């Protein structure tokens, strides 16, 4: 667009997301300029790997391996960070903010670990830091929590925010295959990394939940506050048994506010089959937010991938660019301090699914129900499965009424100590 000064952008990181962002910024340049009323110019891209310049199709003059070429360029007013991790990205973002540049990032680890410090720094230097792409890929959820739902007191978030694990549990549930086979499929399709720990142990989801809960409850939540269990203990029979009780199993990220305390946890959960979240399959994500005014609202869509993620990034860039163009002051970043207590997992009250292998003889169920009863845990239903003739073992699956986690864990230890109990195969919390 001629005749008006453009807004210049620096892009850090030319991996799959960065490459797509550069394609969108250049490919949609005319449409973005019309929307903005001036050009949005990709001034420079950064990657330590020169080969990325070729694979991303970046012309020589738009590429550098030296971050200073972006950080020290006074014409660049917005830095997009898609490097990931919290080492280089952390230093670059801090430096960009200190130099008065606005920042757009997709980096959930960084925001989850350093939000209070980065927000305070951004306020001090009167710049914005936006991070819509850090949770849920192309699903708008950060802006709704910050703005559109701000009249609400939010009581809970239930979310499927890791596509890799949702793909794995969907395959296990639908095809009756075991965890290792489903993980291999996910790796073959590029949904899971060669080292999948970050996803399957729930680490990625815990960063995202920390960000959502921080915004929803307006309190500092550190990643280590989030109680976390991954999906590797699940076996295909868990899905069959859960279905018999009318439930699906998902890796759920849960945040709840009760009085002046909040609970934040990521773990496999049984969900009633008729709940919308139970029907979110494959790599899709969904976030259900319950507000006192709205009731439940659900955000659903593609939670990862270059195109959805670049949608969130470029929209954040446009939001900042529009304010720059209009000469508006940046939106002050809300200060984040700890104003709520984190409820220890031992204090939560929930229902449980317990799967165990026991001796197949008289009196076993009586011993198990005595332990549960002594710990004030009431059985809602129980089934016995797959009695193995040769080893004289049985599989017992129990659903409980709500019980306190500390009581459940005590009962688990006591049941494990029984000679008739071979193993507690899984203990899964239920979200009704
Ligand atoms: N590994 C993440 C997922 C990608 O599976 O959802 C986006 O954070």
Give the helices and strands, then pairings.
Elements: E1 7-12, H1 16-27, H2 29-36, E2 40-46, H3 51-55, E3 63-64, H4 68-71, E4 76-81, H5 88-98, E5 102-105, H6 108-124, E6 129-130, H7 142-148, E7 154-160, H8 163-175, H9 179-188, H10 197-200, H11 203-217, E8 227-228, H12 236-244, E9 247-258, E10 261-272, E11 284-291, E12 295-302, H13 306-326, E13 341-342, E14 349-359, H14 364-374, E15 379-388, E16 393-400, E17 403-404, H15 405-416, E18 421-430
Parallel strand pairs: 1-2, 1-4, 2-3, 4-5, 5-6, 8-10, 10-13, 10-18
Antiparallel strand pairs: 7-9, 7-11, 9-10, 11-12, 14-16, 14-17, 14-18, 15-16
Helix pairs in contact: 1-13, 5-6, 6-11, 8-9, 14-15
Residues 162-164, 199, 204, 303-304 line the site of L-homoserine (HSE).
Largest sheet: 12 strands, mixed
Q: How many E-type strands?
A: 18
Rg (CA only): 24 Å
What general outline do the C-alpha atoms trace?
A: elongated
Give the helix level as a range of percent. Answer: 25-40%
First-residue to last-residue Cα separation? 54 Å
**Residue-averaged pLDDT, rounded?**
96
Q: What amount of the residues lies in strands?
A: 25-35%
Low-confidence segments, given as residue ranges, are: none
Each distinct ligand: L-homoserine
Structural class: alpha/beta
Alpha plus pi helix count: 15
Q: Overview of this structure, please?
A:
With 432 residues, the protein is an alpha/beta fold. Helix 5 links the parallel strand 4 and strand 5. The longest helix is centred in the last third of the chain and has 21 residues. 37% of the residues lie in helices and 28% in strands. The chain is elongated. Strands 7, 8, 9, 10, 11, 12, 13, 14, 15, 16, 17 and 18 form a twelve-stranded mixed sheet that branches. Strands 3-2-1-4-5-6 form a six-stranded parallel sheet, sandwiched between helices. Bound molecules: L-homoserine. The site of L-homoserine has 7 residues, from helix 8. The site of L-homoserine (HSE) has 7 residues, from helix 8.
